[in-house]
């Protein structure tokens, strides 16, 4: 039986080998839950795919895996296939994007059992043991905060960059700062793409030129300044987003909507900064 060092080396080699097919590995994080991190991950993936990139989306949010809902996927249908004696997971495909969720591999009733080795194994299943094929971007929707999943991702995987999502209501500087510091510190120098402010303002249908900053105006701007991050885009709070989320047709598919345009703008920023 291989000793622990051999096992570790073998695991590292498998990560390196699977990453040969993935040009950019981008994590999407947040200080708190419920800010729209999955919404931004899903729509960024769609917007990048619409620009012609090959995109994968891996849902690593153990506390609330929502990518299956956002793309209308039934979890019973996860398929595996064997290659050289090793079982691999076949990702789903929607709108040209390859999709897989951690929600399919874990017992949702036992979140408290999450520990380092388990986080590492599950991330391996999600990233290394899934047949992503050649990708320009693999977007990872991470859990909020700074747990074992994010730490393992930051330490063991060659992340290209990280994007953070916040809302005007949940601007806890300390939470976002901790999350930023986990990826970007003396040891790990993962570039931080910047901050996306979700639910930033409201525009009524009958007043399309008006923006109402119902949760306050410059909070995210100040947070970005304080943490030396760029505020990349501001996404409105809108019925369009929540309805399309529920129906499995992300709003980024609708080029004419303001939200669709904003996600297209975000995809342009991400692709410009990735090369
Ligand atoms: P997180 O991944 O941070 O937990 P989600 O993306 O799951 O957050 O979003 C939380 C809830 O808020 C969902 O019900 C989602 O449909 C809704 N939501 C997210 N962004 C918006 C928005 N811009 N406008 C309206 N509803 C939104």
Walk me through this protein's architecture:
- The chain has 275 residues and is of the alpha/beta class.
- The protein has a single domain, classed as P-loop containing nucleotide triphosphate hydrolases (Rossmann fold, 3-Layer(aba) Sandwich), CATH 3.40.50.
- Helices cover 37% and strands 20% of the residues.
- The chain is built from nine helices and ten strands.
- The strands form two sheets. An eight-stranded mixed sheet has the order 5-6-2-7-1-8-9-10, with helices on both faces. Strands 3-4 form a two-stranded antiparallel sheet.
- Helix 7 links the parallel strand 9 (192-197) and strand 10 (231-234).
- Helix 2 (37-50) crosses helix 9 (258-274) and helix 4 (116-128) packs across helix 5.
- The longest helix is centred in the C-terminal third of the chain and has 17 residues, at 258-274.
- The mean pLDDT is 88.
The largest pleated sheet is described as: 8 strands, mixed
Spatial sequence of strands, sheet with the most strands: 5-6-2-7-1-8-9-10
Gyration radius from CA atoms, angstroms: 18 Å
Number of strands: 10
Enumerate the distinct ligands. Answer: adenosine-5'-diphosphate
Q: Averaged pLDDT, please?
A: 88
| CATH architectural category | 3-Layer(aba) Sandwich
Low-confidence runs of at least 5 consecutive residues: none
Tell me the helix content. Answer: 25-40%
Total separate domains: 1
Determine the strand fraction and express it as a percent band. 15-25%
Structural class: alpha/beta
């Amino acid at each position: 039986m291989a000793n622990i060092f051999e096992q570790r080396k073998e695991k590292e080699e498998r990560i390196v080998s699977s990453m040969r097919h993935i040009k950019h590995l981008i994590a999407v994080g947040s200080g708190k839950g419920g800010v729209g991190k999955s919404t931004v991950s899903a729509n960024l993936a769609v917007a990048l795919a619409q620009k012609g990139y090959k995109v994968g989306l891996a849902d690593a949010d153990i506390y609330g895996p929502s990518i299956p809902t956002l793309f209308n996927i039934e979890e019973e249908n996860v398929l595996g296939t064997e290659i050289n004696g090793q079982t691999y997971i076949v990702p789903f495909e929607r709108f040209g994007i390859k999709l897989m969720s951690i929600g399919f591999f874990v017992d949702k009733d036992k979140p408290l059992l999450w520990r380092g080795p388990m986080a590492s194994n599950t991330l391996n299943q999600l990233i290394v043991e899934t047949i992503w094929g050649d990708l320009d971007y693999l977007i990872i929707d991470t859990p909020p905060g700074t747990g074992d999943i994010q730490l393992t991702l930051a330490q063991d995987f060659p992340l290209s960059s990280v994007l953070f999502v916040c809302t005007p209501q949940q601007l806890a500087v300390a939470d976002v700062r901790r999350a930023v510091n986990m990826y970007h510190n003396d040891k790990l120098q993962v570039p931080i793409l910047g901050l996306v402010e979700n639910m930033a303002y409201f525009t009524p249908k009958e007043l399309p030129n008006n923006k109402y900053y119902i949760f306050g105006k410059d909070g995210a701007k100040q947070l970005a300044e304080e943490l030396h991050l760029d505020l990349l885009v501001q996404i409105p709070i809108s019925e369009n987003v929540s309805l399309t989320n529920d129906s499995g047709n992300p709003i980024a598919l609708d080029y004419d909507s303001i939200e669709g345009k904003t996600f297209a703008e975000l995809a342009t920023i991400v692709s410009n900064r990735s090369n």
